[in-house]
Amino acid sequence: MPRASDEASTLRVENLDVTYGRAVSALRSVSLDVPPGSVVTLLGANGAGKTTLLRAVSGTLRLHRGAVTAGAIRYGETVLDGQDPVAAVRAGVVQVPEGRRVFAALTVDENLRSGGLGLGRRTPERIKEGRERVFTLFPRLAERTRQQAGLLSGGEQQMLAIGRALMAAPKLLLLDEPSLGLAPQMVERIAEVVREINAQGTSVLLVEQNAGMALALADHAHVLEVGEVRLSGPAAELARTDAVRRLYLGEADATEGATGHATDETAPGGPERGAA
Ligand SMILES: Nc1ncnc2c1ncn2[C@@H]1O[C@H](COP(=O)(O)OP(=O)(O)O)[C@@H](O)[C@H]1O
Ligand SMILES: [Mg+2]
Q1: What residue spans carry the region label Disordered (predicted)?
Q2: CATH says 4-100+172-262 is which class?
């Protein structure tokens, strides 16, 4: 049941600058919102800064020697920039890391039980509820509870990584390239699951290089290029722009019949690049 939507909150990222170490600027004046109940996607090539944004939101940035140097991140009333990961999880914000990092030596069930650790008040009922939710979404995991996670297929490991995050009953799920390296059929399955999770009341910030999948799922989309938001708009509109079709949807002939310069006409209010 959609307990997740009890306290509807918007994620607001405002004019965010992030650097790694002393000099590497990874994000510059990035702004985006994830309204309650929505799916928002952040697209971009390798190295654009997608993972960095999720790390900043989930409080894991510091583990990678990164820091927010300007701007703010709020989830409802909660200030998230500068917080640690436990604070984010407590606020209802949970990240599924890229590369589906499950605990390879632990069983499926042990991996699931590790989800939401640090939350405190984890009653046996909550854990039972969480497992039931996960097994309903992923019947394959239910059949493999005692299997070592490292022996699962890539797609199953992605399911487990998502399932583990759901054990913390997130209100906002941060997904980092869930489709990466998966066969098309599995990508479709993951897409269905994201839809289902969202339908249950959880907002989703979906980071993807697979623009086709992401734009089909999302309400709103942003394109990140070298640390800056280049394009923003309703996902359906972005999917029609020449630049996105050519660069991110792999349509070589997208220029035919299109006028180019998609930027201004398709991003109402212009690209969100912070203070212009
Ligand atoms: N721990 C780190 N230390 C230094 N630079 C990093 C670190 N993590 C990422 N970067 C750099 O930050 C930029 C954005 O990386 P990332 O957020 O991982 O991009 P994406 O997820 O879009 O592929 C890249 O130039 C990358 O090399
Ligand atoms: Mg990444």
Answers
A1: 255-276
A2: alpha beta
